[in-house]
Each structure stands twice: as structure tokens, then as C-alpha cells.
Amino acid sequence: MENHLIISERKITLSKYTIPFWIGIHAFEKKERQNVSINIELIISNDISPQDDDITSTVDYDYLRLGIKKISDTEVFNLQETLCERILELCLENEGVEKATVKTSKIDVYPDCDAVSFQASARKP
User: Fold this and answer.
1) How far apart are CA 84 and CA 82, in angstroms?
2) Domain at 10-123, CATH from 3.40.50.970, 1.20.1050.10, 3.30.1130.10, 1.20.120.80
3) What is the pLDDT of residues 78-96, one digit of tens each?
4) Is 20:36 a contact under the CB 8 Å cutoff?
5) Angle formed by the axes of helices 80-92 and 62-74, to 10°?
């Protein structure tokens, strides 16, 4: 089936991926891992388009969850900003991704609010 669509933007989102991290500067934060909820938006190159309904012809987003899990298992962060930028680096490692926006939310840090969040965007040069 031939595609006659003119696609203006391709986007992948990962929503509310919640995973524990060693993160924080306060003594109470260093006692145990904190759950961090992660939202990601990837802008995919228009040069990438699914051919024949085959995953190898597009961006396979499994690398996000696997990469974030590896970061969670192996890295320690003082600042949420550093964690967010580390995940941005991961996002842009995929050659089909042109731009990424990552929002991290520490959802367990304070009992009187839903979350403390940080968001950043980056694009390839």
C-alpha cells in the first residue's frame, strides 16, 4: 500500500514511566531510592518512516525503557537536573531522533505535593 500522506511531524511519547533512582541532596533522600516519574517526547526525523509495517524502518522506542532502567541501576544523582539531562543524552543517541523533551518528577519527596519536576529539551546540532 503506497502512502500518500504528507507527514509534518513524527512524535513518540513515553508517559509516566516510574522507576526508583538514587537521587537527592538531603539526608532523608539518601536513605533509600526515590520513585521518579519520567515523561519523554521525541521528535523523529521526517526521513524516517515505517516501511512495510517493519520496526527496523523506524525508531524502536524500547531503547528508552531499557536505557533508563540501566541508568537507574548504575548511576547516582544529586540533582534532578542532572538526571533529566542524562536521559536527554540517551534519547538523542538514536539516529532517528532529532529533538527530545524530558520531564522528570520526584513523586515521593514531599508529603504535601504530588511532585517536584524538572523539564528540559535538546536537539541535535
Assistant:
1) 5
2) 3.30.1130.10
3) 999 999 999 999 999 999 9
4) yes
5) 140
The 3-state DSSP class for residue 96 equals coil
Under a CB-based contact definition with an 8 Å cutoff, are residues 102 and 38 in contact?
yes
Nearest alpha carbon to residue 84 among 37, 107, 118, 115:
118
Residue 54 grid cell: 517493519
- Per-residue HEC secondary structure of 5-70 comes to CCCCCEEEEEEEEEEEEEECCCHHHCCCCEEEEEEEEEEECCCCCCCCCCHHHCCCCHHHHHHHHH
Q: How many CB atoms lie within 10 A of CB 50?
A: 13
- β-strands 116-123, 97-106 pairing: antiparallel
Distance CA 25, CA 115 (A): 16
Structure pTM? 0.90
Please state, in angstroms and rounded to a whole number, the distance separating the CA atoms of residues 80 and 15: 18
